[in-house]
Amino acid sequence: MKNGILAALMLFAAAPALAQDESPPAADASPDMEALASAFGEMFPAAPLTPEQEARLPAAQAVVAHIFPPGTYARMMDEMMGPMMDSILGSMAQIPIAQLAAIAGMEQAQVAAMGEGKLGEIMAIVDPVYERRNAIASDVMMEMMGDVMKRIEPSYREGLARAYAVRFAPSDLAELERFFQTPVGSRYAAESMLIYADPQVMAAMNEVMPAVLEMMPAMMEQMQQRMEGLPEPRALSDLSDAELQRLSALLGVPAEELRANAAESEAAAEGEAPGDGA
Predict the structure, then answer these.
(1) Residue (of 63, 41, 75) closest to 179 by Cα position
(2) Which of 31, 108, 165, 172 could be a cystine partner for 101, CB 3.0 to 4.6 Å?
(3) Cα–Cα distance between 58 and 25 in angstroms, integer?
(4) Which run of H or of E encompasses 247?
(5) What is the pTM of this model?
(6) What is the CA radius of gyration of the chain?
(7) Average confidence (pLDDT) over 160-174
(8) pLDDT at position 191
């Protein structure tokens, strides 16, 4: 899989809808993937609706039917992800810089500095069909992401309805329904979610990553300053016998094995092979 394509999909998949999908993981999912799915499912716990909120739910569902009708996610995929994927496929993000650097025995920065034109010629020799390969990967990912969005859309729509039932009084919901029945209200409702995928909005978001990168040094410095005075994490040798036995019971790993693992880890951190001694 290409990093650029995956990065784009992760941006889209980070939408709140993922928190609404409570479907069980696939039967052949790995334990790590099951744990990740479980973590997502527990990331945004929601309180049960009160009886008053439950009574407002039908009115809220009617409002949500205007602003998030079936197929909204598919349209968002087309309007946001389509142009994004086209841009990525036409950029250096799809050229395997690390692989070319390994072949040439060069630093990755040196390879990247060659420019797209020269790298394109190189790729035509190394992998003449790399553009087609990337396009296939993009098509498959878009199709599968579309299927995922279609599957979770009903859950997301229900989550929206519950949120509206919590946040709006019956009179508010009735007023929204009347507004959405008007020509301008109907148009606003149809565009209210899709507008977040508008190129104008996405272009403005281009400022986010530079701002985050600019902030990182100061953020790391502040974190370090605020952590000053905190003790370092304890080594296994710092634990009492009782603490070690308790840790062993919690982890389900014999204390002797914990000691051996700790010694191996410390030796690796010092650049020594286990058993070589200090």
Answers:
(1) 63
(2) 108
(3) 30
(4) helix 241-251
(5) 0.58
(6) 26
(7) 96
(8) 92
Cβ atoms < 10 Å from Cβ of 64: 22
Q: Is 65 exposed, middle or buried (0-12, 13-18, 19+ CB in 10 A)?
A: middle
Instruction: Output phi, psi for 100, to 5 deg.
Output: -65, -40
Check pLDDT > 90 for residue 55.
yes
Sign of dihedral through CA atoms 142, 145, 150, 154? Answer: negative
The Cα 75–Cα 232 span in angstroms is 50
Domain-wise residue ranges, the chain: 3-199, 239-268
Whether residue 66 contacts residue 10, with contact meaning beta carbons closer than 8 Å, is answered with no
Task: Give phi and psi for 201, each to the nearest 5.
Answer: -70, -45
277 φ, ψ (degrees, to nearest 5): 85, 170
**DSSP string of 133-162?**
HHHHHHHHHHHHHHHHHHHHHHHHHHHHHH
Q: Assess contact for 76 and 194: CB atoms under 8 A.
A: yes
